[in-house]
Design goal:
single chain; mainly alpha; Cytochrome Bc1 Complex, Chain D, domain 2; 2 domains; 0% strand; binds heme C; metal-binding; heme binding
């Protein structure tokens, strides 16, 4: 291989590495408060996560992060499946794995 090809490969590697790290940086900086609003969570659980619009809807702020994440995941994949959690299932189709983790971490701190 010519020397210039090696340099080209090296540059491609550098560009790929910087693209990957900027993708991670973006998800790490998710604005979880806005995400919670953008995904319409506040419409049922209240802006602060502790003033649900219906007495049969749960308060979710201040709950343990791991518990919150597990509930979101289970309602999304259908393993938590009862009359009320079916309401959540539709919502969760639009919430990704990373977003579930970000929202759970944010809610736990409220
Ligand atoms: C249309 C109303 C509605 C919306 C919108 C909604 N939820 Fe829910 N959520 C519910 C209901 C109802 C339950 C209770 C399910 C049950 O009784 O099993 C619930 C349950 C939960 C739970 C489980 C609480 C527990 O103690 O186990 C979490 C966490 C949660 N929601 C978070 C969210 C998040 C995050 C969003 C936005 C992505 C969201 N919800 C959007 C109605 C809603």
């Amino acid at each position: 291989m010519k020397k210039s090809s090696y340099i080209g490969l090296y540059l491609c590697g550098l560009i790929a590495t910087s693209l990957i790290s900027s993708a991670y940086a973006e998800t790490d900086n998710i604005d979880s408060a806005n995400l919670y609003l953008a995904k319409a969570c506040a419409g049922c659980h209240g802006v602060d996560g502790r003033s649900p619009v219906d007495p049969y809807y749960p308060k979710i702020a201040g709950q343990n992060e791991g518990y919150l994440y597990n509930q979101l995941r289970d309602m999304k994949n259908g393993s938590r499946n009862n009359s009320q959690s079916n309401i959540m299932k539709g919502i969760m189709t639009a919430v990704s794995e990373k977003e579930m983790r970000a929202i759970a971490a944010w809610l736990a701190k409220q």
